[in-house]
Amino acid sequence: MAKYVLKRLLVLIPILLGVALIIFTIMDMTPGDPAVRILGPESSIEAREQLRQELGLNQPFWVRFFDYIKNIFLHLDFGNSYRTGKPVFDDIFKRLPVSVKVAFLGMLLATLMGLPLGVFSAVKQYSGADSFLRVASTVLVAMPTFWLAMLLILVFALYLGWLPAGEASSWKSYILPTITVGVPYGSKVLRMTRSTMLEEIRQDYIRTARSKGVPEKRVIYGHALKNALLPVITTIGSAFGAILGGSVIAESVFNLSGLGSLIVLSIKAKDTPSVLASVLLLAVFFALIMLAVDLIYAFIDPRIRAKYSK
Question: Model-level pTM?
Fold first, then answer.
């Protein structure tokens, strides 16, 4: 198992290099001059040229990219923000807890909503409740995130006045963002759970267990659900990574100072070091989450555990 984990961590290095190259290329191709954005449009040409020289912006693309990679691997230096002039992780570490909290609460809601409702929908196949859950989950999956966020603000913040419309001032401020990011992914978990449960319920071993008089709850939760969990866990793990990296809309609508809003702000300012460091951090989180999903596979299925032990 340790050898497998080490291999996965080593594979992460070329993945991060590829992500860094893609983001660096995109930021280099976007219009705008960081020197103008830092000094302002009324600054002199001489001042801009001096700043470009200090930041190394006059160097060719590949020289700048390899210097950036060298500083990361040799000195763990991700550079300074063009906007603030401070190390990029000063801003990132201030905003990261907000994004992690929203992602964790959203994924917790998605799991608590999707897993039991998916099992219930599969057990009650073709019933009125099953039809309602399938239609509702389809609508929620297809619903744009910003539209759901605006609808929640309109109902619960403006009309009813129960919850704040934004800013992380108290625990209540996280309720609407959690619903916004959690409910669509909960619908995906519901649909996946229903699909895999229906496949397992039709298997021969389920019919054998029922014919032997095994209680229905044990058949469903002790046998069928356990074998149906593997693809559901993949959905939950990938959804958690997607929520963590894709909470830009929720953070923007609810005015939360998270990592997503920092990325948007940095892109607008053409702050390449901040964008690169933020995206690389999200890539590391996503890779570690998927590694944890594979390890959970091994915990659930002894066959996979035996494979990893080789």
Answer: 0.78
